[in-house]
Amino acid sequence: MLGGISIWQLLIILAIVIMIFGTKKLRNLGGDLGGAIKNFKKAVNEDGKPAADDEPAQKLEHQQDGQKDAEFSAEKKDQDKA
């Protein structure tokens, strides 16, 4: 077992925590913690190569940046013609 703590003791502790904080606060806390971990991993991987999870997101960001550059270039050409 986990240091002499049984599964029943863990369930009782979980029930008490849920009664004190409520499920909504715990869900928000979990989401905030997940976001913090994701940002931490992103910051750690900035210096080196990107993590495997982040590659599709980064490709999408680069595609969107390219589209924005193309739109800016088209707008600039239209302004130059006028």
Structure description:
This protein has 82 residues and is mainly α. It folds into 2 domains: 22-49; 52-82. It is 79% helix and 0% strand. It contains 3 helices and no strands. It has helices at 7-21, 23-45, 55-81. The mean pLDDT is 74.
Question: What labels would you give this structure?
Answer:
82 residues, mainly alpha, 3 helices, 79% helix
Low-confidence stretches: none
Strand content: under 5%
Radius of gyration using CA atoms only = 24 Å
Overall pLDDT metric: 74
N/C terminus separation: 77 Å
Q: What's the order of the H and E elements?
A: HHH
User: What general outline do the C-alpha atoms trace?
Assistant: elongated
Helix vs. strand class? mainly alpha
Q: Helix content range of the residues, please? A: over 70%
Number of continuous helical runs? 3
* Number of separate strands: 0
Question: Gist?
Answer:
By secondary structure, this protein is mostly helical. It folds into 2 domains: 22-49; 52-82. It has helices at residues 7-21, 23-45, 55-81.
